[in-house]
């Protein structure tokens, strides 16, 4: 009787061991599938990072080769804008040169407003330049003002661009007429024409 009971217990224990082994195998298989999924996902996640690195490397090389910028400055600019081919930036540079901008002015523009390199040269920038020229802006005036405050070209509406351009032009002209060391320490009445011009000059300096 005891022998029969003992034999029955052994059968139960063996059955438990078999069930445990089967569960372990299934768990291992599931873990393998999970691991494959994890590593597969990680591989996919690396790709965009590699693309970003590739874009930054190309951007730095382009800025150094096309504009003669230092590697350090180009690396700083690449933190603000990146691109993986030269078609768009080439179009932007070509457009600026066709409107009389010198390489020195273009370098200054790109340094101050690097996002310009990813603007659509034909659909966005060209109409803005044409609009400003149609208002009577000479090439020398246009290149001078936009070189100082290139963010004007990042504005969206023609009216806003024109208004801001006129404001910058006025301030630059006023900037030539005053001795800043004297003016910054002089007492000017609030609302006076001279005071307003000086405040505009200071605003422009902050913007540009």
UniProtKB/TrEMBL annotation:
GO terms for cellular component: cytoplasm. GO terms for molecular function: nucleic acid binding. Keywords: Transcription, Transcription regulation, Transcription termination, Transit peptide. InterPro entries: MTERF, MTERF_sf. The keyword NAD does not apply. GO terms for biological process: DNA-templated transcription termination. PANTHER family: CGI-12 PROTEIN-RELATED (PTHR13068), MITOCHONDRIAL TRANSCRIPTION TERMINATION FACTOR FAMILY PROTEIN (PTHR13068:SF133). This is Transcription termination factor 3, mitochondrial.
């Amino acid at each position: 009787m005891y022998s029969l009971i003992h034999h029955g217990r052994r059968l139960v224990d063996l059955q438990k061991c078999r069930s445990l082994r089967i569960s372990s195998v299934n768990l291992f298989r599931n873990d393998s599938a999970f691991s494959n999924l994890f590593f597969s996902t990680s591989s996919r996640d690396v790709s965009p990072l590699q693309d970003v690195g590739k874009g930054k490397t190309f951007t730095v090389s382009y800025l150094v080769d096309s504009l003669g910028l230092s590697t350090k400055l180009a690396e700083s600019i690449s933190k603000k804008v990146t691109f993986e081919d030269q078609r768009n930036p080439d179009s932007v540079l070509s457009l600026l040169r066709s409107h009389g901008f010198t390489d020195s002015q273009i370098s200054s523009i790109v340094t101050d407003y690097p996002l310009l390199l990813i603007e659509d040269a034909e659909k966005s920038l060209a109409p803005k330049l044409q609009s400003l020229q149609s208002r009577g802006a000479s090439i020398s005036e246009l290149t001078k003002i936009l070189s100082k405050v290139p963010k004007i070209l990042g504005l969206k509406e023609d009216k806003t661009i024109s208004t801001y351009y006129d404001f910058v032009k006025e301030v630059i002209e006023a900037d030539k007429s005053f001795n800043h060391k004297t003016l910054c320490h002089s007492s000017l009445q609030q609302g006076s024409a001279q005071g307003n011009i000086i405040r505009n000059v200071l605003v422009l300096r902050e913007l540009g």
